[in-house]
Protein backbone atom coordinates (compact mmCIF):
# COMPACT_ATOMS: atom_id res chain seq x y z
CA UNK A 1 0.00 0.00 0.00
CA UNK A 2 2.68 2.44 1.01
CA UNK A 3 4.81 1.58 -1.99
CA UNK A 4 1.84 2.12 -4.26
CA UNK A 5 1.19 5.59 -2.81
CA UNK A 6 4.86 6.43 -3.07
CA UNK A 7 4.90 5.33 -6.70
CA UNK A 8 1.83 7.37 -7.63
CA UNK A 9 3.16 10.49 -5.94
CA UNK A 10 6.53 10.03 -7.64
CA UNK A 11 4.85 9.88 -11.05
CA UNK A 12 2.64 12.86 -10.22
CA UNK A 13 5.63 14.89 -9.08
CA UNK A 14 7.50 14.09 -12.27
CA UNK A 15 4.59 14.97 -14.54
CA UNK A 16 3.88 18.13 -12.56
CA UNK A 17 7.47 19.31 -12.77
CA UNK A 18 7.49 18.71 -16.50
CA UNK A 19 4.19 20.45 -17.28
CA UNK A 20 3.94 22.66 -20.35
CA UNK A 21 7.55 22.53 -21.34
CA UNK A 22 9.54 20.97 -24.10
CA UNK A 23 12.91 19.50 -23.14
CA UNK A 24 15.32 17.42 -25.19
CA UNK A 25 16.23 14.32 -23.16
CA UNK A 26 18.57 12.73 -25.75
CA UNK A 27 21.21 13.73 -26.77
CA UNK A 28 22.66 15.39 -23.67
CA UNK A 29 25.97 15.90 -21.91
CA UNK A 30 25.94 12.21 -20.92
CA UNK A 31 24.07 10.82 -23.93
CA UNK A 32 26.39 11.34 -26.88
CA UNK A 33 25.88 10.49 -30.53
CA UNK A 34 28.14 8.32 -32.67
CA UNK A 35 29.26 9.58 -36.08
CA UNK A 36 28.08 7.91 -39.31
CA UNK A 37 25.60 5.85 -37.27
CA UNK A 38 21.98 5.80 -36.22
CA UNK A 39 21.34 8.05 -33.24
CA UNK A 40 18.41 8.79 -30.97
CA UNK A 41 16.67 12.14 -30.56
CA UNK A 42 14.06 12.17 -27.77
CA UNK A 43 12.03 14.94 -26.16
CA UNK A 44 9.34 15.39 -23.51
CA UNK A 45 6.42 15.06 -25.90
CA UNK A 46 3.78 14.64 -23.20
CA UNK A 47 4.52 18.06 -21.71
CA UNK A 48 5.27 19.87 -24.97
CA UNK A 49 3.08 22.87 -25.80
CA UNK A 50 4.07 22.53 -29.49
CA UNK A 51 2.52 20.23 -32.10
CA UNK A 52 5.48 20.31 -34.47
CA UNK A 53 8.95 21.78 -34.89
CA UNK A 54 12.01 21.91 -37.08
CA UNK A 55 15.04 19.97 -35.80
CA UNK A 56 18.37 21.77 -36.17
CA UNK A 57 21.95 20.79 -35.37
CA UNK A 58 24.21 23.56 -34.13
CA UNK A 59 27.71 23.92 -32.71
CA UNK A 60 29.11 26.57 -30.39
CA UNK A 61 32.26 26.73 -32.54
CA UNK A 62 31.61 28.62 -35.82
CA UNK A 63 34.55 26.76 -37.39
CA UNK A 64 32.58 23.53 -36.97
CA UNK A 65 29.17 24.88 -38.03
CA UNK A 66 28.83 28.52 -39.01
CA UNK A 67 25.04 28.34 -38.62
CA UNK A 68 22.54 25.74 -37.42
CA UNK A 69 21.57 23.23 -40.10
CA UNK A 70 18.08 21.78 -40.39
CA UNK A 71 18.11 18.00 -40.21
CA UNK A 72 14.31 17.49 -40.07
CA UNK A 73 12.06 20.15 -41.65
CA UNK A 74 8.83 19.18 -39.88
CA UNK A 75 8.91 16.84 -36.91
CA UNK A 76 5.61 16.03 -35.18
CA UNK A 77 5.68 16.22 -31.39
CA UNK A 78 3.57 13.07 -30.95
CA UNK A 79 6.39 10.87 -32.27
CA UNK A 80 8.25 11.53 -28.95
CA UNK A 81 11.56 10.30 -30.38
CA UNK A 82 13.20 9.90 -33.74
CA UNK A 83 16.11 7.89 -35.10
CA UNK A 84 18.50 10.26 -36.85
CA UNK A 85 20.31 8.64 -39.74
CA UNK A 86 23.81 9.38 -40.98
CA UNK A 87 22.22 10.90 -44.07
CA UNK A 88 20.38 13.46 -41.92
CA UNK A 89 23.34 14.37 -39.71
CA UNK A 90 26.80 13.55 -41.07
CA UNK A 91 28.85 15.85 -38.89
CA UNK A 92 32.48 15.38 -37.95
CA UNK A 93 33.17 13.94 -34.51
CA UNK A 94 33.57 16.68 -31.92
CA UNK A 95 32.14 18.42 -28.88
CA UNK A 96 29.92 21.48 -28.46
CA UNK A 97 27.05 20.23 -30.60
CA UNK A 98 23.47 21.12 -29.63
CA UNK A 99 20.07 20.17 -31.04
CA UNK A 100 17.51 22.95 -31.39
CA UNK A 101 13.77 22.44 -31.77
CA UNK A 102 12.38 25.52 -33.51
CA UNK A 103 9.30 27.04 -35.11
CA UNK A 104 8.78 25.40 -38.52
CA UNK A 105 8.02 28.82 -40.04
CA UNK A 106 10.94 30.65 -38.42
CA UNK A 107 13.95 28.58 -37.38
CA UNK A 108 15.46 31.42 -35.33
CA UNK A 109 12.43 31.12 -33.02
CA UNK A 110 14.03 28.29 -30.99
CA UNK A 111 11.63 26.53 -28.61
CA UNK A 112 14.30 24.55 -26.75
CA UNK A 113 18.00 23.67 -26.98
CA UNK A 114 19.64 20.46 -25.82
CA UNK A 115 22.61 20.31 -23.49
CA UNK A 116 25.90 20.47 -25.41
CA UNK A 117 26.79 16.95 -26.49
CA UNK A 118 29.57 15.10 -28.23
CA UNK A 119 29.52 13.27 -31.53
CA UNK A 120 32.04 10.45 -31.07
CA UNK A 121 33.89 8.78 -33.91
CA UNK A 122 32.38 5.86 -35.80
CA UNK A 123 32.95 2.67 -33.84
CA UNK A 124 32.56 4.24 -30.38
CA UNK A 125 30.11 2.61 -28.01
CA UNK A 126 26.67 4.11 -27.58
CA UNK A 127 25.88 5.35 -24.04
CA UNK A 128 24.43 2.34 -22.19
CA UNK A 129 21.04 3.91 -21.54
CA UNK A 130 20.51 5.11 -25.11
CA UNK A 131 21.82 2.15 -27.07
CA UNK A 132 19.52 1.19 -29.93
CA UNK A 133 19.91 -2.40 -28.69
CA UNK A 134 19.15 -1.86 -25.03
CA UNK A 135 19.74 -5.48 -24.02
CA UNK A 136 23.43 -5.53 -24.90
CA UNK A 137 25.31 -2.91 -22.93
CA UNK A 138 28.50 -1.66 -24.44
CA UNK A 139 27.44 -2.58 -27.93
CA UNK A 140 29.40 -1.04 -30.75
CA UNK A 141 27.80 1.41 -33.12
CA UNK A 142 27.47 0.28 -36.69
CA UNK A 143 26.40 2.30 -39.67
CA UNK A 144 24.06 -0.53 -40.61
CA UNK A 145 22.61 -0.64 -37.09
CA UNK A 146 19.13 -1.38 -35.97
CA UNK A 147 16.14 0.83 -36.73
CA UNK A 148 14.08 2.63 -34.14
CA UNK A 149 12.13 -0.39 -32.94
CA UNK A 150 14.01 -0.56 -29.66
CA UNK A 151 13.17 3.07 -28.94
CA UNK A 152 9.81 2.00 -27.50
CA UNK A 153 11.71 0.44 -24.59
CA UNK A 154 14.05 3.35 -24.05
CA UNK A 155 13.79 4.74 -20.52
CA UNK A 156 15.75 7.81 -19.42
CA UNK A 157 18.25 7.31 -16.64
CA UNK A 158 16.69 7.65 -13.21
CA UNK A 159 13.12 7.21 -14.42
CA UNK A 160 11.11 4.28 -13.12
CA UNK A 161 9.32 1.97 -15.52
CA UNK A 162 5.98 3.19 -14.15
CA UNK A 163 6.92 6.80 -14.79
CA UNK A 164 8.06 5.92 -18.28
CA UNK A 165 4.75 4.18 -18.98
CA UNK A 166 2.83 7.13 -17.57
CA UNK A 167 4.72 9.49 -19.86
CA UNK A 168 4.16 7.27 -22.86
CA UNK A 169 7.84 6.48 -23.29
CA UNK A 170 7.12 2.78 -23.01
CA UNK A 171 4.20 0.94 -24.56
CA UNK A 172 2.78 -1.02 -21.63
C1 LIG B 1 2.20 22.82 -36.76
O1 LIG B 1 1.44 23.17 -35.61
C2 LIG B 1 0.69 24.37 -35.77
C3 LIG B 1 -0.01 24.65 -34.45
O2 LIG B 1 0.94 24.80 -33.43
C4 LIG B 1 -0.30 24.22 -36.89
O3 LIG B 1 -0.99 25.45 -37.09
C5 LIG B 1 0.44 23.87 -38.19
O4 LIG B 1 -0.50 23.61 -39.21
C6 LIG B 1 1.27 22.62 -37.95
N1 LIG B 1 2.09 22.38 -39.15
C7 LIG B 1 2.08 21.21 -39.78
C8 LIG B 1 2.99 21.12 -40.96
O5 LIG B 1 1.39 20.27 -39.42
C1 LIG C 1 11.64 34.87 -36.04
O1 LIG C 1 11.86 34.61 -34.66
C2 LIG C 1 12.75 35.54 -34.07
C3 LIG C 1 13.01 35.03 -32.65
O2 LIG C 1 11.80 34.76 -31.96
C4 LIG C 1 12.14 36.93 -34.10
O3 LIG C 1 13.03 37.84 -33.52
C5 LIG C 1 11.88 37.30 -35.55
O4 LIG C 1 11.21 38.53 -35.60
C6 LIG C 1 11.02 36.26 -36.23
N1 LIG C 1 10.91 36.54 -37.64
C7 LIG C 1 9.72 36.63 -38.25
C8 LIG C 1 9.76 36.90 -39.72
O5 LIG C 1 8.66 36.49 -37.66
Description:
The protein has two helices and nine strands; from the N terminus they run αβββββββββα. With 172 residues, it is an alpha+beta fold. The protein has a single domain (21-166), classed as Immunoglobulin-like (Sandwich). Bound molecules: 2-acetamido-2-deoxy-beta-D-glucopyranose (2 copies). One 2-acetamido-2-deoxy-beta-D-glucopyranose is lined by residues 106, 108-109.
Task: Sum this structure up briefly.
The chain is an alpha+beta fold and 172 residues long.
Topology:
Blueprint: H1 2-17, E1 24-26, E2 33-34, E3 39-43, E4 52-59, E5 69-76, E6 81-84, E7 94-103, E8 106-113, E9 117-120, H2 161-166
Parallel strand pairs: 2-9
Antiparallel strand pairs: 1-3, 3-6, 4-5, 4-7, 7-8, 7-9
The protein binds 2-acetamido-2-deoxy-beta-D-glucopyranose (2 copies).
Structural class: alpha+beta
- Residue stretches low in confidence (pLDDT < 50, at least 5 long) are 133-172
> What compounds are bound to the protein?
2-acetamido-2-deoxy-beta-D-glucopyranose
Question: What's the gyration radius in Å?
Answer: 16 Å
Number of domains: 1
Q: What percent strand?
A: 25-35%
Query: Helical proportion?
Result: 10-25%
CATH architecture: Sandwich
Number of distinct helices: 2
Taken in chain order, the helices and strands follow as HEEEEEEEEEH
Can you tell me the CATH class?
Answer: Mainly Beta
Tell me the number of strands. 9
**Biggest sheet, in brief?**
6 strands, mixed
Rounded mean pLDDT score = 77
Q: What is the general shape?
A: globular
- Find the CATH topology: Immunoglobulin-like
Termini separation: 22 Å
Amino acid sequence: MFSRIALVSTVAAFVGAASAQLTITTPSANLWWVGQSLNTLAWTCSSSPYQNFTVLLANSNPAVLSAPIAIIAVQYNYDCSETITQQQASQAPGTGYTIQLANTLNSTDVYTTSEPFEIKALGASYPASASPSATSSGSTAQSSGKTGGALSTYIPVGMSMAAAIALGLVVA
